[in-house]
Amino acid sequence: MKGLGPPDEARVAQAEANLDEVFAYYNKVLAKQKYLAGDRLTLVDLYHLPNGSALKAFGYKGTFESIRMWMSGSRGYRGERLGSRLQHWRARRHEQLWNLALHFSKLM
Length: 108
Known about the structure:
Elements: H1 9-32, H2 43-57, H3 65-72, H4 82-107
Helix pairs in contact: 1-3
C-alpha cells in the first residue's frame, strides 16, 4: 500500500487478529444495546463509522453480525436505522441553529 513495498504478512496477520479481537468485544456489546455507548447515539458511534467504512472499502470480511447491522444501519436492528438516526440528529441541529440565527437577527 502507498508504494512502500510488499507488506509484512506476519504483521498483517497479527493486525487482523487484533482487529477480530476488538470486533468480537464490540459484537458482544452491540448484541445487548443499540449503540456502542448505550441506547443513544453518541460521539463514540460517529467516531467509528468512517473507520468501518474504510475497512469495508479495503475488503475486510468480518463475520460479526451485530457490527455489520450497526454499521449498515439495517432496518431490523432494534427497529431503527443508524442512518435515519443521524439524519434526525442533523435536522434537529439545523433547526436549533436556524432558531438561534432568527433570535440574533431580531436583536439587530
